[in-house]
């Protein structure tokens, strides 16, 4: 066990921030600390680094109480990357990184300067700051400064790295680079990282485990899938969120829904949206619709070119309950295609079931049929029950196919 927090309470004089926290961090883990502003994340990091003493409870580092370590011993084991301050610094980049070696120097005369130099160079290389190593810190951007302090922390060669929002000044590519690099160090150098994150999606992607703090208490500890859940995030952050799956990883991702996001409530997809221009059949929707196609196509679209070379006998359309269905036939191949517009909200599961339902209905009505179809929903208004939808689609599609057959062009 790298670190153990046993029933820790405390904070500042007259202000108890943390209440009865217990958890442990294993060697080699990337352990994330999450929580709203003021929930006690920085206070907890200060206690772990020995800057603040708990009022109650105990923190053990490698099974030994933290208070038995001298400041220098702690600095040899732990490096802290604080939130970057914006004050002016009169040091160069290289001097700042070199300060990371301080805890390892013995006496007044530095005994192992070659070794120190090598470590400082390595730390600068790893964080990509060597190209501006002779510049003064105050001449750097916030993100560059963040990387310099990370280099300083690495030069300390710690066993535990404590990070307070390491990515908050970094652009997208440096965020990814820093975290990918941290993971490589974790695996190669047996480092353990404890880091505060504000970005829940990044924490979900990179952390082995997460601690979600709420008002100084443990709300939940677990892996990303367990902690980044709609219910717990909404309860702790007191806001509405929507969850979605990451397209390539089994990691939950969260998206915000602005209060002001109002779709045009009266926007309805019906016969007014249909246009036939020189044999080309279009649907022009007043709002973007979320679509899934039998060919795997998905996304948000508002203009749909359905078919070319059609005469008015080749297609049918109509509204069935709140669903607008268009069916058209390809006169050469005798295939039937369908566009189904749902005026309502279709969940992810609803889409899957609707796609399956339409495939089944087509097979039932037409036998082997390779015709294509799309399902597009406004995601506006009431949630649609996939079982009800199935019945409505069956009746609507059947009626339209019969009617195209009757029109005599086949
Ligand atoms: N030096 C201090 N003296 C007294 N109270 C403090 C001190 N530092 C922080 N606090 C209080 O302790 C509480 C927790 O602060 P802390 O900085 O740990 O929160 P945090 O979760 O890191 O917040 P943020 O997300 O805003 O960085 C806050 O209410 C804060 O006002």
From TrEMBL:
GO terms for molecular function: ATP binding. Residues 3-240 form the ABC transporter domain. Pfam families: ABC_tran (PF00005). InterPro entries: AAA+_ATPase (IPR003593), ABC_transporter-like_ATP-bd (IPR003439), ABC_transporter-like_CS (IPR017871), P-loop_NTPase (IPR027417). PROSITE patterns: ABC_TRANSPORTER_1, ABC_TRANSPORTER_2. Keywords: ATP-binding, Nucleotide-binding, Translocase, Transport. This is ABC transporter ATP-binding protein YvrA. It comes from Lederbergia ruris. The gene is yvrA.
């Amino acid at each position: 066990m790298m670190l153990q927090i046993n029933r820790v309470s405390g904070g500042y004089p007259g202000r108890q921030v943390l209440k009865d926290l217990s958890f442990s961090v294993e060697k080699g883990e990337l352990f994330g600390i999450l929580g709203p502003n003021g929930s006690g994340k920085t206070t907890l990091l200060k206690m772990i680094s020995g800057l603040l003493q708990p009022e109650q409870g105990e923190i053990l580092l490698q099974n030994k109480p933290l208070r038995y370590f001298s400041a220098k011993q702690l600095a040899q084991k732990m490096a802290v990357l604080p939130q970057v301050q914006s004050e002016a610094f009169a040091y160069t980049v290289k001097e700042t990184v070199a300060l990371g070696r301080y805890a390892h120097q013995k006496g007044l005369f530095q005994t192992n300067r070659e070794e120190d130099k090598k470590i400082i160079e390595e730390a600068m290389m790893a964080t990509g700051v060597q190209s501006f190593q002779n510049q003064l810190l105050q001449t750097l951007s916030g993100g560059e400064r963040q990387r310099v302090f990370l280099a300083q922390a690495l030069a300390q060669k710690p066993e535990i790295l404590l990070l307070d929002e390491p990515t908050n000044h970094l652009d997208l590519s440096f965020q990814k680079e820093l975290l990918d690099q941290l993971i490589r160090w974790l695996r190669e150098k047996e480092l353990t990282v404890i880091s505060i994150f504000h970005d829940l999606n990044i924490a979900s992607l990179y952390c082995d485990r997460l601690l979600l703090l709420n008002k100084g208490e443990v709300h939940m500890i677990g892996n990303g899938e367990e902690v980044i859940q709609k219910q717990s995030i909404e309860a702790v952050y007191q806001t509405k969120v929507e969850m979605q799956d990451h397209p390539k990883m089994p990691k939950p991702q969260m998206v915000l829904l602005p209060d002001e996001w109002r779709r045009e409530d009266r926007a309805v997809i019906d016969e007014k949206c249909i246009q036939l221009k020189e044999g080309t059949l279009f649907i022009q929707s007043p709002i973007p619709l979320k679509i899934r196609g039998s060919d795997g196509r998905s996304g948000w679209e508002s203009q749909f070119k359905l078919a070319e070379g059609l005469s008015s006998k080749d297609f049918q359309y109509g509204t069935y309950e709140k669903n607008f269905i268009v069916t058209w036939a390809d006169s050469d191949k005798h295939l039937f295609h369908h566009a189904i517009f749902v005026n309502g909200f279709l969940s992810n599961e609803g889409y899957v079931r609707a796609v399956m339902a339409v495939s089944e209905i087509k097979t039932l009505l037409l036998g082997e049929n390779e015709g294509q179809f799309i399902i597009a929903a406004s995601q506006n208004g009431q949630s649609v029950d996939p079982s009800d939808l199935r019945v409505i689609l069956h009746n609507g599609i059947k009626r339209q196919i019969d009617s195209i057959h009757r029109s005599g062009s086949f």
